[in-house]
Design goal:
The protein is α/β, with parallel strands linked by helices. It is built from 13 helices and 15 strands. It has helices at residues 3-12, 48-51, 60-72, 83-96, 109-124, 141-144, 180-195, 223-234, 288-291, 306-321, 324-343, 373-385, 411-428, and strands at 27-31, 34-37, 42-45, 101-106, 128-132, 161-165, 204-207, 237-241, 268-271, 282-287, 349-355, 358-363, 388-389, 391-393, 400-403. The strands form 3 sheets. The chain has a 7-stranded mixed beta sheet, with helices on both faces. Strands 1-2-3-13 form a 4-stranded mixed beta sheet. Helix 4 (83-96) packs across helix 10 (306-321). The longest helix has 20 residues, at 324-343. The protein is globular, with a radius of gyration of 21 Å.
Length: 429
Amino acid sequence: MTPDLHARHRAALPDWLALYYANPIELTHGEGRHVWDAAGNKYLDFFGGILTTMTAHALPEVTKAVSEQAARLVHSSTLYLNRTMVELAERVAQLSGIPDARVFFTTSGTEANDAALLLATSYRRSNQILAMRNSYHGRSFSAVGITGNRGWSPTSLSPLQTLYVHGGIRSRGPYAHLSDAEFTDACVADLRDMLGQTRGDVAALIAEPVQGVGGFTSPPDGLYARFRDVLRDHGILWISDEVQTGWGRTGDHFWGWQAHARSGPPDILTFAKGIGNGMSIGGVVARADVMNCLDANSLSTFGGSPVTMAAGLANLSYLLEHDLQGNARRVGGLLIERLRAIAAHAPGVREVRGRGLMIGIELAHPDTGEAAPGAATAVLESCRENGLLIGKGGAHDTSVLRIAPPLSLTVSEAEEGASILDAALREFS
């Protein structure tokens, strides 16, 4: 702990700015899948700065690209041609799966989702948005207005009329007892019923293929394809929020929407976090007619900056050349099975879920089945004390441990982290 820095933090920054741990730590440097704090303690990083350090800490290819670009030109804005931005946009457009795609770069996932909402409401001339229960899409005024997780939605005021649909949480709620097929049918029926109650045209449905802050929950594969069929009948756009699920983290797919691909790609895709490997990059991909629907001038002062674009291009190249999606599938699969074996002997674990290197461990009181946020906090603290950093999330109560290490995680590191989690879960179950 650095008590002086903590006191200065509390005096200079907002009270609502969350910090992990009773004694917050200051991270000073990292390498590979490890970070060190100001006291010299070494940690295996299973959270990657909220799923943002996607490939590795201090990845030489990225640091070299950033250093070389910063030595030439740090900033120019989108008012000037930027070769690296064009090159990254071309690669992202091609990888997105969206035909005739255009890409707009932002500085964060929040800003990307905000831009996507602007595009959808302008294109459809409607401020009505469908969102998923338990969702999280950022901290801007419009993003908070479509966030279905009350712990991250500080106001009910919004420029949008938001209607919440079932389907994001498979193992809780009124449809949890149904089979996957029945669950999907019930959620589609709920969507149809919701649309029957709206007045005028709905602009879009925005959905995370795997809910991030909500605790890494997801519907059965194919649900959003079924939703897509209904939406298409009404001309409603589908926005896939890939801020946490993109770039191969789920292992099976490069994008989360591809688990629901039967009815085609989304109309709009948003991304951020991992592509910059810690640099501030977000963005929107959309069909040209949707992206170009705005009838006013616009630009971005910091989105698509020379330095961040250089980082993104180098990071994406490393990811693809080293098949980190395949590594996420292989190592993530082993880690999930190891954690499920641990959970079988830990009564406080309600469920281990996820895919690839995006894994959630939901904790509950063994006797009542109620969420156990206190246990989640205790496990988080225990893991830190034993050299492992993880995250938290969940719905009404924060009782899900979130595990999302860099995609270059090795088998031995996965086993090391699982052993630390094993000891912590046994202690507090």
